[in-house]
């Protein structure tokens, strides 16, 4: 009899758990917003918030997630109307390229998503909408845009005419965050982001920062704000003196900045339109042996071109020479380059989970208005700006005519 009672109790418990699970699932799948006849669920909203958090997005993530999902529904509705689809092959390529921006393979990126509770489907939808919309905008408006040589000349002149530039004085902390220590690093970064005094931040830099600037409390010299990646630049510009950024995720690390001051200074040249840099890879990570090898190489080179001689006879993978727009450079590399002058070298970064040391060298910042500025680059920038304006106007029209509930 007792056995039957125990079995009955167990069945009742299982039944209750099943009901609770079903209720939870139903809550996650319940609609929170409808855009025309298209539903956005609580689960989708939670996933988008987690994705924005992983990207290190600043500001109100709840609001940004809601707005982003609403716009995605409007975009998808318009693309469905014209029958635009994205092939599986094109989507796979787009996903791999997205992962590569963080110096990750797609499987590595998918593991990072899983560690943060984000489903692969969430990322696939995010990338698919973005790529498809870009293709649609180009197809719809591309023929409407006419860019003359005079337009290009005016743009180059305008970019080079600013007499001053904004410079910032920062304290920095970069916390190493390999996968096995990422959670603890995030906890430490969250704590530091609440600091209000320079002394507290500088003391934390001496204790936890992975960069040589830790020896002087993370203090940097005055640097042009244009040296920093656009995403980080916008975060810094929102700071008041003494404020600290929220933790910013970078490959295998977390960055924090504290604003010490801003100033207007004479602008010697226009902002960079592309950055030429080289990365030479040395086995051994931050070991003494690898650092000795890096010091020896540093003593043998004066320019980036000298690295070709160092790499001669080795695998092609040992040296990368890149010339990219600032927005296309991986965030940790971009932060290192921001501190360098042409032909200066950094050995603060690693790859392959810390097993490979990166000898990073800034070759040149190519600026608009320089004699060797490529007019085609400027022409493409103008085209991109005009396409963005037309796309924004179209999205506003779609939103104005939509029925949106739950905003």
What does this structure look like?
It is built from 14 helices and 11 strands. The termini are far apart. Helix 4 crosses helix 6 (120-141). 49% of the residues lie in helices and 20% in strands. The protein has 3 domains: 30-142, Triger factor/SurA peptide-binding fold (Orthogonal Bundle); 164-266, Chitinase A, domain 3 (Roll); 272-367, Chitinase A, domain 3 (Roll), CATH 3.10.50. The chain is globular and about 65 Å long. The strands form 3 sheets. Strands 4-3-6-5 form a 4-stranded antiparallel beta sheet. Strands 8-7-10-9 form a 4-stranded antiparallel beta sheet. Mean pLDDT is 83; it is low at 1-11 and 16-25. It has helices spanning 2-29, 42-54, 61-82, 88-100, 106-115, 120-141, 149-160, 182-192, 198-208, 230-237, 288-298, 306-311, 331-338, 375-400, and strands at 31-35, 38-41, 164-176, 223-224, 248-250, 253-266, 272-283, 319-324, 345-351, 356-367, 404-405. The protein is α+β, with helices and mostly antiparallel strands and 407 residues long.
CATH-defined fold name of the largest domain:
Triger factor/SurA peptide-binding fold
Query: Helix- and strand-based class?
Result: alpha+beta
- How many β strands by DSSP? 11
DSSP summary: helix tally: 14
Kindly give the count of domains.
Answer: 3
Q: Describe the biggest sheet? A: 4 strands, antiparallel
- Helix proportion: 40-55%
Strand coverage percent: 15-25%
The name of the CATH architecture of the largest domain is: Orthogonal Bundle
Mean pLDDT: 83
The low-confidence runs, each spanning 5 or more residues with pLDDT under 50, are 1-11, 16-25
Widest β-sheet, arrangement of strands: 4-3-6-5
């Amino acid at each position: 009899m007792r056995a039957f009672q125990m079995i009955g109790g167990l069945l009742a418990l299982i039944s209750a758990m099943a009901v609770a699970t079903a209720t939870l699932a139903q809550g996650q799948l319940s609609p929170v917003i409808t855009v025309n006849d298209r539903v956005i669920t609580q689960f989708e909203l939670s996933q988008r918030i987690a994705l924005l958090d992983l990207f290190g997005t600043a500001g109100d993530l709840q609001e940004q997630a809601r707005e982003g999902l609403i716009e995605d529904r409007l975009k998808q509705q318009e693309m469905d109307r014209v029958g635009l689809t994205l092939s599986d092959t094109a989507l796979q390529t787009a996903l791999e390229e997205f992962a590569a921006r963080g110096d990750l393979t797609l499987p590595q990126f998918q593991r990072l998503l899983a560690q943060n509770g984000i489903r692969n489907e969430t990322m696939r939808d995010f990338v698919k909408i973005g790529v498809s919309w870009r293709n649609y905008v180009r197809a719809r408006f591309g023929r409407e845009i006419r860019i003359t040589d005079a337009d290009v000349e005016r743009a180059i002149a305008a970019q080079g005419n600013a007499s001053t530039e904004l410079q910032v004085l920062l304290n920095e902390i970069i916390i190493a965050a390999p996968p096995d220590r990422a959670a603890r690093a995030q906890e430490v970064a969250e704590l530091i982001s609440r600091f209000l005094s320079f002394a507290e931040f500088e003391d934390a830099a001496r204790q936890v920062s992975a960069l040589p600037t830790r020896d002087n409390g993370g203090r940097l010299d005055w640097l042009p704000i244009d040296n920093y990646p656009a995403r980080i630049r916008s975060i810094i510009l929102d700071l008041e003196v003494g404020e600290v950024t929220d933790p910013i995720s970078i490959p295998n690390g977390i960055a924090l900045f504290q604003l010490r001051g801003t100033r207007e200074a004479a602008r010697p040249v226009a902002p960079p339109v592309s950055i030429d840099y080289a990365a030479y890879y040395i086995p051994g990570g931050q070991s003494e042996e690898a650092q000795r090898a890096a010091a020896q190489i540093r003593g043998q080179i004066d320019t980036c071109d000298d690295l070709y001689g160092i790499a001669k006879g080795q695998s092609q993978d040992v040296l990368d020479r890149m010339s990219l727009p600032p927005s296309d450079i991986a965030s940790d590399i971009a932060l290192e380059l921001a501190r360098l002058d042409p032909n200066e070298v950094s050995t603060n970064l690693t790859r392959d989970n810390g097993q490979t040391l990166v000898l990073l060298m800034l070759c040149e910042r190519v600026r608009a208005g320089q004699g060797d500025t490529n007019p085609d680059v400027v022409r493409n920038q103008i085209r991109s700006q005009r396409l963005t304006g037309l796309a924004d106007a179209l999205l506003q029209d779609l939103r104005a005519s939509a029925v949106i509930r739950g905003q």
